[in-house]
C-alpha cells in the first residue's frame, strides 16, 4: 500500500525573480530556493542552478518556501530546452520516495539519467551501414560492419561506434571513404518510426483471443487496472499482450514492456518489429548514449510510442503512458538491490495508478504476492491453460541420488546420462541446468583445510577456470589461481570442491565425447552480442548438449530441446529463507518449460537427495494451485508477505562491534514500531554479512498488513545518527526473510 503525500506542486508559471523550489539530484534531501530566471519558468522545468561553486541540473518542483536561507537567494542560471517534467512524474517520484523511504533526490536521479540533457547542439554527424564492400576485409573493419549489421537501422556517433566495435575512429573513416559506412549530418533526436497498429498479428486461438479481448477492454477504458496474465511457457502470453500494446497505440497512448534480462530484448524486438512494422525504443544499460538520449527526449514529446526495457525505463518522462507490461513478473531481478531499493513490478503498479494506465503482469509462475492479489480480487486474472499448438508441458520425474552411488567429483547420474544419450542420438537437444557460475564454488587446501575466501566479503572465492581466476561473486574482486596454499604454503594441495557450470561442462564433454557441448553462462561471453550469437546458434541446432545457469531459464526458444536435467534440485531449498520454496518452484517450472516446445514432448529430470520434500513433490506433481495454497497458508500463519508486511534495516560499518551495538540499541528503542503493532527481530548478520570490507547486520520488522509501516520506520531510525563510517539503509519488502 502506498501512502499518498498530497500534491507536490502548484501548477503554473513563475515570473522572473519569483521564488521557486528546485530539486536537484545532489545528496541533500531538500528542495532549495532560487529566483526564477530571465523569461520566467514553468513548474517542472529542467533548469541549471548554482550550488556552491558548481552548476548542477535540477527540476523546478514548485513555489519556493522562503524558509531556509543562510545568505542571499541565488538565481536559476537558465531553463533548459527539454519538455518540463509532468506533474504525474513528480507525484510518482514523491510517492516512490515515500514508499521506499529513499531521499527524493535519489529518486530524481533515476529519472534524469539522460546523457547530454543540458547542452544539445542541434546537428551531429552520425554513422550507419552503407552498401559498399570494403576493398580489403581486415579484422577491424569487419568488427565495425558487424556492429552496424547487428544493430539494424541504428546509427551511432563516431565515438560510440569506435567504442562498440573496439577500433580506432580512423578505421571508420576508412570505411566511409569506400561507402561501406555512411556519414550523415542529422538533427539530433529524430522521432522513432510510427508503429502500424492496424496490422494484424498472428491468428489467435480461442483462449488467446478471449484473453486479448479482456486486456484490450482494459486499455480502452483508459483507467488504472492490473491484470495477472498467467499461462505456461509457450502458451502465447507475448502474442496476447502485444494485442494490448496495439490497442494502446491505437488510442494514442504509450506502452512500456519490461523484461527481466537484457539478453532477451533482441529476440523480443525482432518479434515486435514483425508485428508492428517498426522498432520499439530500447532502454537499458547496453544501449548507446546517443540512442538513450534520443529515446528520453522522444518519450517526452510523444515521438516514441513503445519502450522495451529494463526496470529503469519506469522512470522515463512518458507523455501519455497507457500500458505497462511486466513480463516474467516473478523474476527477482526486478528488485533493485543496489542504491535505491525498489521492486520494479510494484513501482509499475504505482506509476500506472497515478497516470491511469493498465498493468499486465505476465508469468508462468507468478509471485505469491501477485497470486494473492489476484485471489483477493485486487487484480484481474486471465489464464492460458495450454501451450499453443501441439506442444505440451514436459513430464517431470525425480532421480533419487541416494540410489545412484555416484563417484566423487561426478554430478551427472547414470540415469541422467542414459536419458541424454537417448535424446541426442535422435538428433534432439538436452539441457543440463545448474544454478552456479564458474568452475567450483569452493577451493580448499587438502593439507590444512583452509578455504580461500574474499578478504573483503563473507564469501568463498569461486574458481573460474575459463578466466583462470578466483572471483568473489559478492564484490567482483578477483585474483589469479594460486599455486600454493595461501595459508600453509603447501604445494599442489589446493582442490576444487563442488560443481559450477564450467565443471559440469567438462564432465559432459568426457561423458559424451561425440556430442557438441555449448555452455551458457553470462560471464563466459565478452559481450552481449557474442552471447546472443551463441543463443541463436544453439536455437539453430548448433549444439547437442547445452549446459547453463539461470540465464537459460528465461524465455529462450530452443525448438529441438526435449530433455532438461536439473543437476542439483535441492540447492535452493537450503537455508532458512521463507521464500526459498517459492523460488525453487518457479525456477524448476521455468527451466523445465524450456523442453518440448515443438512437436516432440519433453521430459524434465530432477536430481535430488530428498525426493519426498514437499516442494520437490509439488514440482513433480505439477500441482501449482496446490503449491500456492499450501505456501499461502504457511505464510498466513506467521504473518509474512503477502499476508503481512516486512522491512529490513541494514546497518553497516567497517567495525563489526559498532554495527552490532547500534543494531541492538535500535532494537531496544522500538517504541515507534510497537506502536503500530509491529515487531523487530535481530540484529542478525545480513544475508550478505560482509561486503567490500563493511560488516552488515540486519533488523527485520514484521508488521500487520494495514499498518502505516513507513512513518513508523522513519520515526524509529531517526533515533540513530549516521556517521562517516556507519550507514543505514532501509529495504521495504525485502527479497529474503
Ligand atoms: P509465452 O510468452 O507464453 O512463452 P509466446 O507468446 O512466446 O509464449 O509463444 C510461444 C510460441 O508460440 C512463439 O513462437 C509464438 O510465436 C507461438 N505462438 C503463440 N501463439 C501463436 C498463434 N496464435 N499463432 C501462431 N504462433 C503462435
Ligand atoms: Zn568480495
Notes on the protein architecture:
This protein has 737 residues and is α/β, with parallel strands linked by helices. The chain is built from 20 helices and 31 strands. Helix 1 (87-100) packs across helix 2 (104-111) and helix 1 (87-100) packs antiparallel against helix 10 (344-355). The model is unreliable at 1-10 (pLDDT under 50). The protein binds adenosine-5'-diphosphate (ADP) and zinc ion. Adenosine-5'-diphosphate binds next to helix 7.
Secondary-structure blueprint:
Layout: E1 13-14, E2 19-24, E3 32-35, E4 41-42, E5 46-51, E6 54-63, E7 78-79, H1 87-100, H2 104-111, E8 123-129, H3 139-150, H4 158-165, H5 169-177, E9 181-187, H6 206-221, E10 225-231, H7 237-250, E11 254-258, H8 265-276, E12 281-283, H9 289-301, E13 306-309, E14 321-327, H10 344-355, E15 358-363, H11 368-375, E16 380-384, E17 395-400, H12 414-425, E18 429-433, E19 442-445, E20 462-464, E21 469-471, E22 478-480, E23 494-497, H13 501-511, E24 517-520, H14 528-539, E25 545-548, E26 561-566, H15 580-592, E27 603-608, H16 614-621, H17 624-638, E28 644-653, H18 656-668, H19 671-675, E29 679-691, E30 694-704, H20 709-717, E31 727-732
Helix pairs in contact: 1-2, 1-10, 3-4, 6-7, 15-16
Bound molecules: adenosine-5'-diphosphate (ADP) and zinc ion.
Shape: globular
Distinct bound molecules: adenosine-5'-diphosphate, zinc ion
How far the N terminus sits from the C terminus, by CA atoms, comes to 19 Å
- Percent range for helical residues? 25-40%
**Structural class computed from helices and strand pairing:** alpha/beta
Rg from Cα:
27 Å
Beta-strand segment tally = 31
**Largest pleated sheet:** 7 strands, parallel
Average residue pLDDT: 88
Q: Which sequence of strands runs across the widest sheet? A: 12-13-11-14-15-10-16
| Uncertain runs | 1-10
Number of helices: 20
Strand content: 15-25%
Protein name: Replication restart protein PriA
Keywords: ATP-binding, DNA replication, DNA-binding, Helicase, Hydrolase, Isomerase, Metal-binding, Nucleotide-binding, Primosome, Zinc
GO biological process, one term: DNA replication, synthesis of primer
Family: Belongs to the helicase family. PriA subfamily.
Amino acid at each position: 500500500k502506498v501512502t499518498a503525500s498530497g500534491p507536490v506542486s502548484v501548477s503554473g508559471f513563475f515570473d522572473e525573480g519569483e521564488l521557486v523550489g528546485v530539486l536537484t539530484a545532489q545528496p541533500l534531501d531538500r528542495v532549495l530556493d532560487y529566483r526564477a530566471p530571465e523569461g520566467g519558468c514553468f513548474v517542472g522545468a529542467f533548469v541549471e542552478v548554482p550550488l556552491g561553486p558548481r552548476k548542477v541540473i535540477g527540476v523546478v518542483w514548485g513555489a519556493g518556501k522562503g524558509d531556509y536561507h543562510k545568505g542571499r537567494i541565488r538565481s536559476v542560471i537558465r531553463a533548459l530546452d527539454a519538455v518540463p517534467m509532468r506533474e504525474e512524474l513528480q507525484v510518482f517520484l514523491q510517492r516512490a520516495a515515500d514508499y521506499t523511504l529513499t531521499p527524493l533526490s535519489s529518486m530524481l536521479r533515476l529519472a534524469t539519467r539522460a546523457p547530454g540533457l543540458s547542452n544539445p547542439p542541434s546537428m551531429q554527424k552520425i554513422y550507419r551501414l552503407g552498401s559498399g564492400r570494403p576493398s580489403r576485409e581486415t579484422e577491424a573493419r569487419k568488427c565495425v560492419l558487424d556492429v552496424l549489421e547487428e544493430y539494424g537501422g541504428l546509427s551511432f556517433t563516431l565515438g560510440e561506434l569506435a567504442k562498440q566495435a573496439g577500433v580506432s575512429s580512423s578505421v571508420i573513416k576508412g570505411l566511409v571513404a569506400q561507402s561501406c559506412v555512411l556519414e550523415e549530418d542529422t538533427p539530433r533526436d529524430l522521432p522513432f518510426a510510427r508503429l502500424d497498429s492496424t496490422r494484424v498479428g498472428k491468428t489467435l486461438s480461442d483462449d488467446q483471443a478471449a484473453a486479448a479481448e479482456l486486456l484490450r477492454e482494459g486499455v480502452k477504458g483508459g483507467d488504472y487496472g492490473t491484470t495477472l496474465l498467467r499461462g505456461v511457457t509457450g502458451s502465447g502470453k507475448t502474442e496476447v499482450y502485444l494485442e494490448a500494446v496495439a490497442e494502446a497505440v491505437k488510442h494514442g497512448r504509450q506502452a512500456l514492456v519490461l523484461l527481466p534480462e537484457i539478453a532477451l530484448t533482441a529476440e523480443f524486438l525482432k518479434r515486435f518489429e514483425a508485428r508492428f512494422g517498426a522498432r520499439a525504443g530500447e532502454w537499458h544499460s547496453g544501449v548507446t548514449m546517443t540512442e538513450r538520449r534520443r529515446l528520453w527526449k522522444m518519450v517526452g514529446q510523444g515521438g516514441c510510442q513503445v519502450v522495451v526495457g529494463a526496470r529503469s525505463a519506469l522512470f522515463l518522462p512518458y507523455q501519455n503512458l497507457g500500458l505497462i507490461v511486466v513480463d516474467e513478473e516473478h523474476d527477482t531481478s526486478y528488485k533493485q538491490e543496489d542504491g535505491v531499493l525498489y521492486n520494479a513490478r510494484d513501482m509499475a503498479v504505482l506509476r500506472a495508478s497515478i497516470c491511469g494506465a493498465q498493468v499486465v503482469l505476465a508469468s508462468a509462475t507468478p509471485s505469491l504476492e501477485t497470486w494473492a492479489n489476484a485471489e483477493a480480487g485486487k487484480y484481474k486474472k486471465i489464464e492460458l491453460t495450454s501451450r499453443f499448438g501441439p506442444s505440451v508441458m514436459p513430464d517431470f520425474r525425480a532421480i533419487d541420488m541416494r540410489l545412484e552411488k555416484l563417484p566423487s567429483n561426478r554430478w551427472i547420474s547414470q540415469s541422467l546420462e542414459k536419458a541424454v544419450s537417448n535424446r541426442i542420438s535422435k538428433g534432439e537437444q538436452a539441457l543440463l541446468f545448474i544454478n552456479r557460475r564458474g568452475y567450483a564454488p569452493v577451493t580448499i587446501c587438502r593439507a590444512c583445510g583452509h578455504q580461500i575466501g574474499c578478504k573483503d566479503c563473507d564469501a568463498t572465492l569461486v574458481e573460474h577456470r575459463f578466466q583462470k581466476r578466483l572471483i568473489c561473486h559478492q564484490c567482483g574482486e578477483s585474483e589469479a589461481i594460486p599455486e600454493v596454499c595461501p595459508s600453509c604454503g603447501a604445494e599442489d594441495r589446493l582442490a576444487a570442491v563442488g560443481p559450477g557450470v564450467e565443471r559440469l561442462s567438462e564432465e559432459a564433454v568426457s561423458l559424451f565425447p561425440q556430442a557438441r557441448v555449448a555452455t551458457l553462462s553470462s560471464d563466459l561471453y565478452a559481450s552481449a552480442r557474442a552471447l546472443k550469437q551463441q543463443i541463436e546458434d544453439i536455437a539453430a541446432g548448433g549444439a547437442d548438449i547445452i549446459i547453463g545457469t539461470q540465464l537459460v531459464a528465461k524465455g529462450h526458444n530452443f525448438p529441438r530441446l526435449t530433455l532438461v536435467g536439473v543437476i542439483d534440485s535441492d540447492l535452493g531449498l537450503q537455508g532458512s529463507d521463507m521464500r526459498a520454496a517459492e523460488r525453487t518452484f518457479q525456477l524448476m517450472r521455468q527451466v523445465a518449460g524450456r523442453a518440448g516446445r515443438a512437436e516432440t514432448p519433453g521430459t524434465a529430470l530432477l536430481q535430488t537427495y530428498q525426493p519426498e520434500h514437499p516442494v520437490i513433490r509439488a514440482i513433480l506433481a505439477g500441482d501449482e494451485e496446490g503449491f500456492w495454497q499450501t505456501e499461502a497458508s504457511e505464510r498466513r500463519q506467521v504473518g509474512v508477505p503477502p499476508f503481512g508486511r516486512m522491512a529490513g534495516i541494514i546497518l553497516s560499518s567497517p567495525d563489526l562491534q559498532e554495527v552490532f551495538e547500534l543494531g541492538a540499541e535500535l532494537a531496544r528503542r522500538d517504541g515507534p514500531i510497537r506502536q503500530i503493532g509491529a515487531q523487530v527481530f535481530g540484529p542478525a548478520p545480513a544475508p550478505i554479512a560482509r561486503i567490500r570490507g563493511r560488516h552488515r547486520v540486519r533488523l527485520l520488522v514484521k508488521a500487520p498488513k494495514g499498518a502505516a509501516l513507513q512513518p513508523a520506520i522513519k520515526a524509529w531510525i531517526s533515533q540513530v545518527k549516521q556517521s562517516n563510517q556507519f550507514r543505514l539503509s532501509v529495504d521495504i519488502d525485502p527479497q529474503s526473510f
